[in-house]
Amino acid sequence: MGVSDCHSFKDFRALAKRRLPAPIFHYIDGAADDEVTYRRNTEAYERCDLVPNVLTGVEDVDMSVTVMGQKLAMPVYCAPTALQRLFHHDGERAVAHAAAKHGTMFGVSSLGTVSVEELAAMVNTPKMFQFYFHKDRGLNDALLERAKAAKFDVMALTVDTITGGNRERDLRTGFTSPPRLTLGSILSFAMRPSWALNYLTHERFDLPHLSDQVNAGSNLATSVGDYFSTMLDQSMSWKDAEALCAKWDGQFALKGVMSVADAKRAVDIGCTGIMVSNHGGRQLDGSRSPFDQLAEIVDAVGDQIDVICEGGVQRGTHVLKALSVGAKACSGGRLYLYALGAAGQGGVEKALGALRSEIERGMKLMGVTKLDQLTRENLRYRGV
Hints:
384 residues; alpha/beta; TIM Barrel; 8-stranded parallel beta sheet; two-stranded antiparallel ribbon; 16 helices; globular
């Protein structure tokens, strides 16, 4: 099986599982506790049915959207994710080029493995920086200033990682950043020699936004859960978020909002966007899916702030359902990370292209030529 055989999210997941060492694949694939929320994130879309209209003249469709001031050629963007050069040696470079090819936005994590400066010089597609709020206020200031100097378009403060989720797969595999060999993982790495060769022959693994400030994650093997629990500031409050928003003085979003009350507070402090997200099911297991929670948040603040539905998206029809409810766009990590791990830039380009084709086809079959023609009249929910 190769990338030419991959036509869907599930195909790329299967290829990534074949090509990546088990600890690294399961870091992408895993979630918290019993992974109930992880599964629910996609299952929520399957409980909702589309009701199409016909004979509307759909020869030409426009799937562009404007999200937090950014004009995107498709209503999906690549959410920021950590440690990308562990999955493929090109990491964020591959994702940046693929996003630019498809005219969409990509995010870069505070735990990114390619610097904001390099990525800014590389592509001019819209860029988002994902901010983790550290105990070290000097580090916080440095992160913000670097993203601002690199002229990133959107700042997203992640608010759902106040402590690390219980990612039991990582505990079983011994996954750390950078990888630490254990008796249980040596065989898996040995059976993926191409990954090991690429990892060892390219530039040293680094977290450039953190390495000048802290050892965690760069010179010291640590788990992501430990990083969240020890490096991030658990006293972070609405006052801190408001101050950061003011200091950024641009397009600013909260990533990880799930309640109406928090969505309203985001509007009050000056945010221009929110990601309705449960961190891909990787934090609080048993929490509601973003799609299930979307309607009440859109009804409360959708006319005041851009609402993005993040998590569980595997098909273009999932995107159409979220936009029918009232989301401005969708985003996700796994929707491109499996493709990155499986085949680098070419994989991400193909995955985004397949999703784009599904959205275009779905629009035509739904009888719409622009995304704002989608409404809740197009949806029915089974069991309701």
